[in-house]
Specification:
With about 325 residues, the protein is mostly helical. It has 20 helices and no strands. It binds protoporphyrin IX containing FE. Pfam families: Trp_dioxygenase.
Length: about 325
């Protein structure tokens, strides 16, 4: 098609488009005439992005800590973006399901392989000082982390391990939510008193987390899998992708993260209290929490050994340097 013809055809299509919405093409063409060219920095809001790393102390390594948390939250957002599409999907298309889980896994893998930025990338002496200016804030208060769990699996699978057998989908959402594992982790079991870190988190996010829990109460990723026709449910590629996701979210990321807690808080037999106030050595190990998004995909033995490699990981002298 010659250039003139192409432009004419484009104008015709535009005219059609604007007419259909009761709009006047000529006014929009004026807008196009006066509009500035788009730049890279405006498109991605670069100035805003680079202005939100604001340390609370003078220690240079605090900036690394802030930035890596922000990077992680952006990846969490990418993960949620894919999860929401699975939750909303009604097509039961196998390729679509596998592709979304594959993307989620690639985001988790990026996070897992970059965690050395935390484990090895800051001076311990600086960390131990600037963290005191951050009390009682903790990554524990990451709402997106909690949302990833809620979109992945029914709440009964997130109930604390010690009580999980006494709860089922017959319990209402509010009840299940109150017994979620991370609430127990941040509660003094002898007095029943919640940590300030937990109280603040609950005050800010309970309505939102409950709304999402209700919204996905029969459409989490696990539900979506179980609702597939039997033939699709048995697809090996899908099963393997889902198991990878479980491993990434509930074993490998938590292990890398726990590695940083050991590096900074547990050296020389002198434990340091966590800013969120949990008993972190009991709270963080995946084998203690045993959070499993897709439990029927595993054998009894796999379930029993869930996250056991943390022992090897943490006690490997290479990882404790
Ligand atoms: C030097 C680096 C880090 C250390 C020493 C550390 C330490 C801890 C500790 C001790 C806890 C238990 C809660 C508490 O008592 O505060 C915790 C929880 C948590 N942190 Fe970190 N953290 C680090 C980096 C990060 C990063 C980069 C993220 C990314 C967002 C993060 C996200 C979380 C999450 C989501 C939890 C809750 C885990 C769960 O409920 O299973 N942390 N962290």
């Amino acid at each position: 098609m010659a250039n003139d013809e192409r432009i004419e055809s484009q104008i015709n299509k535009l005219e059609e488009k604007f007419k259909n919405s009761g709009q006047d093409l000529s006014s929009y063409l004026d807008g196009l005439l006066y509009q500035k060219y788009l730049t890279y920095w405006d498109y991605i809001h670069l100035d805003t992005l680079l202005s939100i790393q604001v340390p609370r102390t003078h220690f240079p390594d605090e900036e690394i800590f802030i930035m890596y948390h922000q990077i992680t939250e952006l990846y969490f957002k990418l993960i949620l973006h894919e999860q929401k599409q699975i939750v909303d999907d009604r097509s039961q298309d196998l390729a679509f399901f596998i592709e979304k889980i594959r993307r989620i896994n690639s985001y988790f893998k990026a996070l897992i392989s970059s965690f050395s930025i935390m484990i090895r990338g800051m001076e311990r002496e600086q960390f131990l000082r600037y963290r005191m200016a951050l009390l009682p804030a903790s990554g524990f208060q990451s709402a997106q982390y909690r949302m990833i769990e809620i979109y992945a699996t029914p709440l009964e699978n997130l109930v604390h391990q010690s009580e999980r057998d006494s709860f089922s989908k017959e319990n209402n959402i509010e009840e299940l939510f109150e017994h979620i594992y991370w609430k127990k982790g941040a509660t003094d079991l002898s007095t029943g008193e919640k940590t300030l870190t937990l109280k603040q988190f609950e005050f800010r996010y309970t309505p939102r987390l409950l709304r999402i829990s209700n919204q996905v109460k029969s459409s989490t990723i696990y539900h979506k899998y179980l609702q597939l026709p039997k033939k699709l449910r048995e697809n090996e590629e899908l099963i393997s992708a889902l198991k990878d996701m479980d491993m990434n979210a509930n074993v490998n990321w938590p292990l890398m993260h726990m590695g940083s807690a050991y590096r900074y808080l547990a050296k020389e037999n002198k434990e340091v209290e966590a800013t969120g106030g949990t008993n972190w050595k009991d709270f963080l190990p995946p084998s203690f929490q045993k959070i499993i998004f897709f439990p029927t995909l595993y054998s009894e033995e796999e379930l029993d050994n869930w996250g056991k490699q943390w022992v090897d990981h943490i006690f490997n002298p290479e990882n404790r340097k």
